Amino acid sequence: VYFYSAPENFNEEMLRGKRVIVTGASSGIGEQMAYHLARMGAHVLVTARTEAKLQKVVERCRELGAASARFVSGSMEDTAFAEEVVKEAENTWGGLDMLILNHIGHSYFNYFDGDVDHIRKLLETNFLSYVAMTVTALPMLKESEGNIVVVSSVAGKAPGPFAAPYSATKFALDGFFSSLRHEFIIENVNVSITLCILGYIDTDNAMQAVSHAIKVAPSPKEECALEIIRSGALRQHELHYPPGILGTAGSLRYGHKIWHKDKLLSLSWPQTPSS
Ligand SMILES: NC(=O)C1=CN([C@@H]2O[C@H](COP(=O)(O)OP(=O)(O)OC[C@H]3O[C@@H](n4cnc5c(N)ncnc54)[C@H](OP(=O)(O)O)[C@@H]3O)[C@@H](O)[C@H]2O)C=CC1
Ligand SMILES: C[C@H](CCC(=O)NCCS(=O)(=O)O)[C@H]1CC[C@H]2[C@@H]3C(=O)C[C@@H]4C[C@H](O)CC[C@]4(C)[C@H]3CC[C@]12C
């Protein structure tokens, strides 16, 4: 009963004055989350590799009304950097209310090319850095009874073709964070974990990677970003965006047609015994 005492309705005032870290915030969904949080009056700490982009995001956050806005630049390939970002929040704010884990390292949308080193690097960036930040942030999040928000994908629930390395990292997130949530419930740790299962979103990098192959319209990044913040603040276990993206039996709604080298592949996704 204690754990489920989550607020029922979202109100943007819930974020006013909250201290929030957003990773992967120099572009795409992360950037849009930073702007929503700023508009809601939160303190934001954004991070990614590209300093020039982060500088602009921080300036815009200040214009939008953030209680404060700052950035730390560096690569999440290195777990020491991941920990450093959380320490920066501790030194600046003396605490933390929400940790939004959103960044991904570069990958490809194609047949698996056999590159094991790529998978190792991607696991470090997309998975291990999420774990490292969580471990470092946990004492502060326990203190504030705060939120961990993990941005994942339908590729982390329903595997499809051409995303083997990426999909592996997203499944790892589900395994780790869903297990950790159980432990928090058993131990009455009042830190929520929200796993966000996203479909195709209209960020520049995603569209560049797959618009030749997937012809369905992507969902808007601005709305997606707001839904992620909302679900985190409401302490929901999972967000599925766009709504119903995972149909019955966990199948992917739009995954029936993919183009590859000018050839249309019609797929039953995922393959089921009856298909
Ligand atoms: N867009 C989509 O269709 C979907 C997206 N998602 C998920 O949503 C999240 C955001 O995706 P999206 O907005 O499209 O991603 P983008 O490619 O737009 O943004 C990725 C962010 O991660 C940063 N980044 C890349 N490499 C590193 C690194 N080594 N260390 C630190 N930061 C890094 C990038 O900045 P910089 O280059 O400056 O480091 C950028 O800020 C991801 O978790 C993704 O898996 C899930 C399903 C679909
Ligand atoms: C291949 C995309 C990754 C692009 C990338 O490398 N981004 C980082 C660039 S940076 O290093 O310069 O910052 C994939 C990112 C999101 C994937 C999509 C997704 O997760 C939802 C669907 C899942 C399904 O299994 C396949 C189709 C998806 C639309 C999937 C396609 C690949 C991504 C766009």
Automatic annotation (TrEMBL):
InterPro entries noted in UniProt: 11-beta-HSD, NAD(P)-bd_dom_sf, Sc_DH/Rdtase_CS, SDR_fam
One GO term describing the cellular component: endoplasmic reticulum membrane
Annotated GO biological process: steroid catabolic process
Enzyme class per UniProt: oxidoreductase
Keywords for this protein: Endoplasmic reticulum, Membrane, Oxidoreductase, Signal, Transmembrane, Transmembrane helix
Compartment(s): Endoplasmic reticulum membrane
GO molecular function terms noted in the UniProt entry: 11-beta-hydroxysteroid dehydrogenase (NADP+) activity; 7-beta-hydroxysteroid dehydrogenase (NADP+) activity; steroid binding
Annotated EC: 1.1.1.146, 1.1.1.201
Subunit structure: Homodimer.
Name of the featured protein: 11-beta-hydroxysteroid dehydrogenase 1
Organism: Anas platyrhynchos platyrhynchos
